UniProtKB/TrEMBL annotation, chains A, B, C, D, E, F, G, H, I, J, K, L:
It comes from the Bacteria. Gene3D superfamilies: Flavin-binding protein dodecin (3.30.1660.10). InterPro entries: Dodecin, Dodecin-like, Dodecin-like_sf. This is Dodecin family protein. PANTHER family: CALCIUM DODECIN. The lineage of its organism: Bacteria, Bacillati, Actinomycetota, Actinomycetes, Micrococcales. Transmembrane segments: none annotated. SUPFAM superfamilies: Dodecin-like.
Length: 69, 69, 69, 69, 69, 69, 69, 69, 69, 69, 69, 69
């Protein structure tokens, strides 16, 4: 049963359009550093507001990736 | 005060487009089994990733439905 | 270091289109009462269902706003 | 050691007199569907208010019942 | 969809007779300041003891009230 | 500032009439062992059911008592 | 994407040998009622003691099973 | 038993010297708006860092104050 | 209804073979001080590691024992 | 592996100068009753306020001490 | 006081025999990347089921290792 | 919007003088490995005790640092 150990790492990502775009932004950046990402859990969702407008949609993600043997 | 007892049941639903579509998918499936669904609470949100792309948006829902007398 | 104290207040907002619209609805209403909102944390997400259809997307938000000196 | 597996199911019950009456209402309704209820844990307690008066005492219960072999 | 935004505020109330009386005391006081209270969630229940006797039944309530447009 | 240290101890108490009676039963028993009880926090509330009837109202209490100098 | 909705149900199972045996006992009993169990999460682990000896190893499991279309 | 209802409100305060100073800053600002503050619970503690140095000690406080009759 | 009050006390126990042995070790030690232990809840499970090997299996237990009348 | 069982007990301690002093006050008092204290976890931090001034810094501690064989 | 800073990292490990074997598998893999592992906390325990049989015992571990100076 | 992804990593740091010194020690060590630390959240606070004296003030920190593009 190879590849049975995975790591979970936490990232925070922001987008100026939506939470779902922020998830994509975060996973893309994470994917440039680690291989074999298998999923992510949305731990928190926040918005940043300035002058009454939402200027950032922010997610905290727990990203899981399988470790190479 | 008839119909004052409701049940809460947990389901997991997935969509390949968005979390909100996953909620609709889950409620539709739940509605084929039980009647009188009144709402749902989003307990968890996760994404599944393969080859660097999000292949499923998954929600864990606590679905409430009123019990018939 | 002026303006270093902020308040956090909880609101519940609903939309008939999406969670993200509910967040906008809630922040707009909050912004009519308090100034200097800097952000909000999404504490809960729920949907209301009637006759098998989602009739409201509801969010509980913890809204932060800086207090004037 | 027969009968060693139990199920836990969540219900919401309301009464217009008290939380304790709501627990009785919920257990009575649950008992019309399943046998061998052994207990319940009070997960949440809420009141509904209308025109300044409490119109419903509501409990969320985790009800345990032993499964037949 | 008017009146879709509500506020949630936390109060602590005490009674010398019971938790349920403390809830009534708290909601009555809250109702003298804000309108349109729709409900309350019982967050905590405590008793104060003096000379071996319970001298106060205390509840922490999260009170919800709808904001006027 | 004498007597500024208190201990917190957890007990479980049952009554066949109500949660509030169970709290009294628990505090009375605790008071036979320790002095200077100042309060208790209701951590959990459960009921035991037999043959469809509630046979015990059970509370888990965190009891606080001031330590003598 | 067929079969994308799963249910999560909670059971309590006991064994007189070990927690891991209790998990097997619980899953076996659950499998006699529902099909397509895909996994379980161990929510709680308890032991029952009598005369100073452990007489039961008990687990609370959240069991997931895929719903047929 | 006058004055038996209190409100709990959440604030965030910062200091450039310590957490305890941040608590004092927050209570001082809160005290300029409400009377009869009786205490505060430290909900979170954070530091802000810039160029490797701590530039702010931040606390989230739940402040309790007794409501006038 | 004699013997209806129980105490809950927390202990930490370690074994060099397994978590289940640690539970036995803890209950044995607890049983040398208090009578009438009825059960224990496993609150935490940890391992201690030295030179890449597990040198201790540690459990935090909430032990319940009935108080004598 | 002697002395492998420890107890965890909860105390509340107050100081009129700081949280860290309250921790020292609490451990000193606990040390007058039990031997072999190995550590403490800070569970809560609160302040008491009177006339706008902090009159007590209070900590809730989970104190661990090794049991003699 | 050298070596006083440690890192905590989360891994997920699976075994086809038991939870305790999964812990060993995870720590072994972690030990091939980092030195000076001092312990691990078992955050979650899950089983994977296929055709009614447990095919994997999975643990989520928070692994602590001391950082070199 | 460059630099919108941050990582969150957990460290444990100790000092023999105070919690605040432990935070500084931890951030200094973290800063020798990663750049662009923007803050830290205090997750836990513990003390180690030996012979009745506090010998270490320990903090668990969640450290956030912005990832380079």
């Amino acid at each position: 049963m190879a590849g049975t150990v995975a790591r979970v790492t936490e990232i925070t990502a922001r987008s100026d359009t939506s939470f779902e775009d922020a998830i994509r932004v975060g996973l893309e950046r994470a994917g440039s550093t680690v291989r074999n990402i298998t999923g992510a859990w949305v731990k928190e969702q926040k918005v940043e507001v300035s002058d009454g407008r939402i200027v950032a949609w922010q997610v905290d993600l727990q990203v899981t990736f399988v470790l190479d043997d």
